[in-house]
Amino acid sequence: MKKIIIIEDNRDIRKGFAEVIKDSGKYEVVKDYDNCEEALRNLKRDNPDIVLMDIDLPGMSGIEGTSRILKQNPDTLVLIITVYEDSNKVFKSLCAGASGYIVKNLGMKELLHSIDEAVAGGAPMSLNIASMVVRSFKLSSDSPLSERETQVLQGIAQGKTYTKIAAELYINKETVRSHIRNIYHKLSVNSKADALRVAEDKRWIV
Amino acid sequence: MSIERLINWFLPSGVRGNKEHPRYHELYTIASTIFMGTAATCIFPVLLIWYNMGEYLWMFYLNAAGNLITLFGIKYTGHYRFFNIISGALTYFIIYYWLKDSGLIYSTNICIVHMFLLGGILADKKWGWLSIITNIIYLNLIYYLTISNEDYKILSTSLGSPLYALFMHCLITAFLGSFLAYSLASNEASRKKIISLRDERINILDEAVRQRTEQLNSMRQSIAADFHDQTGNMLAAINRQATVLQLRFQDDPEFLPLIESIISNSNGLYASSKDFLWNLNNDSDNPETLFEYLKSYGQNFYNQFDVDFSASISGKYRHLQQLSSFAALNLIFIFKEVMNNVIKHSGATEVFLEMIYQKDLVTYILKDNGIWKDADVEVEHYGLKNIERRAEKSSFLYQLTKTDRGTSVSIGLPVTVKLL
Q1: Min CA distance, B239 vs chain A (Å)?
Q2: Quick one: fold of B283-420?
Q3: Over 80: is that where the pLDDT of B352 sits?
Q4: Residue bearing the bigger pLDDT, A35 or B128
Q5: 3-state secondary structure B236-304
Q6: Are A7 and A31 found together in one domain?
Q7: Which terminal residue of chain A, N or C, has fewer Cβ atoms less than 10 Å from its own Cβ?
Q8: Domain containing A18: what range?
Q9: In the listed set A99, A119, A139, which residue is the last one of a domain according to the structure?
């Protein structure tokens, strides 16, 4: 069974997530923390497969926490839990290496479905995040994205749903989501400075 | 056709009718002076026929032709000084013909030389004063021609020394010319000063507006940030706690609907706060920003149901169009309802959002390939009635079209030109 730790300073949200996940019987919630520092200290002992990470935390931010966890444990899947999927902070976390994000007020089924999808190698991408990704790759002179990844990214930036993009590219929806995961991976590896400059752009502060 | 339009016709394209153009004022003044001069040159000499002086008519028309060449020169090249010099030389030559047979420096026709001086100064504000010098040189030349002529001695016995006539004419030229040139120059300087004061004032206002907008923008950003950090988290906490209750009471038919209602209400509050905050955005009256928001909402919404969704803009893009205040918020409400109806009642597999730019109108259309059922007549009616009422209240043009191939809802929003 995959092991999960939750880092979120709001106790009700943290416990709420933990109970729903535990109840599913699919994942084991090893521990939940209200700050990054403590989670990092216990990382070796907890040895989680998945980290659910809030962004605004007392002390170290979730963005910094994400990159530290991945430095220690590169195989861990860090999923950002956020109030708003279009936030530039989410984009920064993706640049720091997060594999995706989960909206905090998702329903029970949708929450578990999102974690399942992340484990299966997929990731979601909102229109505004797609626009930020497009801009950040445009800033670096040669794009590291493959042709398919570029097509997927363009499709999302144009407002198309995953099924629409899948139909147009003759692939299935899961493949679209795994392309998104690869895009996030390349985003965190390439042109970090450019990407962060995009995130600082006032237009994206929502 | 008014005279102003006619004069404008002689201005180069780009400057024509464009009062904001930096050269408009300069070219309009020169063109209007030459135009009036030409008109006078054409009409006035007709009187000469009554005095049996018709033989001089050609001179006037030659002069008018010179002026016309200058006017067309302005129209096609945007320059006038070269043409003015040519036309001026031609005029001096014509005046000489008048003076030649009427007593040269003694001639009453010398008044034409003074008229020409006035025209020159009025036409060219920058270099017009040079015609004072050319006129004095010309008068000296006429004087020289007078004394070189044997007949002048006869005239001088009754009319006095030609030197005196020259002196008086030069005095008139210098006095009249400098007076007019000075008064025009000081007028021009005041005009420029007024313009620069006005520009300075506009710049101050622009800066104040910019600062205010920036202030409002940062206020909006901080409200939005607060919302996300606090209110949003609180709503998420309510949602999560209710979800835990939902889990614990999943077999209890008494509590379950109540818990689901709490979840749906907190989600509803979250969504409407998000729309409202977005509307505070200083760009939310831009039709394209609104389209982006609807597109993003549609993409997110239909992703949940595995429905194909795409969006596009058509029509000619018009810069600086703005929607009326709160139009965006009302349209968002309507479209959310419509998008929801598609899922609830149509069974559509493909949905398409379109924005069309038209004159004075931006139309947002949501098309689907399903057929809106009347399964729950009351509920659907209520929803549609709500949409219609809101569209009517906001002065939107609303149209619902049902065909065998699909359904489309189109909402037209009036737009005006953005001032700020």
Answers
A1: 6
A2: Heat Shock Protein 90 (3.30.565)
A3: yes
A4: A35
A5: HHHHHHHHHHHHHCCCCCCCHHHHHHHHHHHHHHHHHHHHHHHHHCCCCCCHHHHHHHHHHHHHHHHHC
A6: yes
A7: N
A8: 2-119
A9: A119
